[in-house]
């Protein structure tokens, strides 16, 4: 039966005896091609291992930064704010120790190839540092100020912090640095607005009528800055803009309640009134 009649086409290698098909010499493991592929394998394995180490470090940075933020939220009800600020600085120093390990892992590497592994931790660190800076100065910390805090020397942190995989582990003295990217900075500041909104709620509950107005003015400036970026910036930044707008609306609602009805509502009931108004806003916007 021919192939046109639906039969199977005879393949070329079927003409050879079975014991002679695809028989060849063993692959020479010392050939230049095999040596090149082994080199590529080792390089890829080392890169994947480094990526996993960076993911773990980023997770540790995220956890410690969140703990710092939770600690800073206690400042609205704590009698001694300086003690909390001191404790938060100690926690942030611990976070910078982790960032130092990241900087050592990235020594001699292109940071953008590993950026996805560390971006979550860096954003959370920016949020924690900017939150602490706002509590101290009622202003926004700049990206340059954050990067200045991420310059490390071996004299300050010692040689024990170096990881075995670091390419510069043989250096006895040197400087390590990690630069926050503009996208990480913007996303961290956008997340900061949610923490400031919570801080405003806690302040109202404690009878503090000054902090909500300070936070409201600050959030308006931040919102104006993000509005200038608009859709021209990264996609993640444009997504954060909606949440930022919600936080600003809630803080402005608190300021309205304090300004218009603050004199007629007891301080211990302001938080309840504000919470009810916040729930109404969320229901109107379809959040809950």
Describe this structure in words.
The chain has 288 residues and is mostly helical. Among the domains are: 118 residues, Methane Monooxygenase Hydroxylase, Chain G, domain 1 (Up-down Bundle), CATH 1.20.58; 79 residues, Up-down Bundle (Methane Monooxygenase Hydroxylase, Chain G, domain 1). 65% of the residues lie in helices and 2% in strands. It contains nine helices and two strands; from the N terminus they run H-H-H-H-E-H-E-H-H-H-H. It has a two-stranded antiparallel ribbon with strand order 1-2. Helix 6 packs antiparallel against helix 7 and helix 6 runs parallel beside helix 8. The longest helix has 42 residues. The radius of gyration is 29 Å and the shape is elongated. The C terminus is likely disordered.
- Going by CATH, the architecture of the domain at 44-155 and 175-180 would be Up-down Bundle
Helical stretch tally: 9
For the sheet with most strands, the description reads: 2 strands, antiparallel
The CATH homologous superfamily of the domain at 44-155 and 175-180 is named Translin, domain 1
CATH class of the domain at 44-155 and 175-180: Mainly Alpha
Spatial strand sequence of the major β-sheet: 1-2
Low-confidence stretches: 159-172, 284-288
CATH topology of the domain at 44-155 and 175-180: Methane Monooxygenase Hydroxylase, Chain G, domain 1
Query: N-to-C SSE series?
Result: HHHHEHEHHHH
Shape: elongated
The count of strands amounts to 2
> Roughly how much helix do the residues carry, as a percent range?
55-70%
Alpha-beta content class: mainly alpha
What proportion strand? under 5%
Radius of gyration: 29 Å
Mean pLDDT: 79
Q: How many angstroms separate the termini? A: 71 Å
């Amino acid at each position: 039966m021919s192939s046109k009649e639906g039969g199977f086409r005879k393949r070329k290698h079927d003409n050879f005896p079975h014991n002679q098909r695809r028989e060849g010499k063993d692959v020479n493991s010392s050939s230049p091609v095999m040596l090149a592929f082994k080199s590529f394998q080792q390089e890829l394995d080392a890169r994947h291992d480094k990526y996993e180490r960076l993911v773990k470090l980023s997770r540790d940075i995220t956890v410690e930064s969140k703990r710092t933020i939770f600690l800073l939220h206690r400042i609205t009800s704590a009698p001694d704010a300086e003690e909390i600020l001191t404790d938060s600085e100690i926690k942030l120093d611990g976070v910078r120790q982790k960032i130092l390990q990241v900087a050592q892992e990235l020594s001699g590497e292109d940071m953008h190839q590993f950026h996805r592994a560390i971006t979550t931790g860096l954003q959370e660190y920016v949020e924690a540092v900017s939150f602490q800076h706002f509590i101290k100065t009622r202003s926004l910390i700049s990206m340059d100020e954050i990067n200045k805090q991420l310059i490390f020397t071996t004299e300050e942190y010692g040689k024990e912090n170096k990881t075995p995989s670091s390419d510069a582990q043989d250096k006895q003295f040197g400087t390590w640095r990690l630069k926050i990217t503009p996208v990480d900075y913007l996303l961290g500041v956008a997340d900061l607005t949610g923490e400031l909104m919570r801080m405003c709620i806690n302040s109202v509950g404690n009878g503090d009528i000054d902090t909500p107005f300070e936070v409201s003015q600050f959030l308006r400036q931040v919102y104006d800055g993000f509005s200038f970026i608009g859709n021209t910036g990264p996609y993640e930044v444009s997504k954060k803009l909606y949440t930022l707008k919600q936080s600003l609306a809630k803080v402005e609602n608190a300021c309205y309640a304090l300004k218009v009805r603050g004199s007629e509502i007891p301080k211990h009931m302001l938080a309840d009134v504000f919470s009810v108004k916040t729930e109404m806003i969320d229901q109107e916007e379809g959040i809950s």
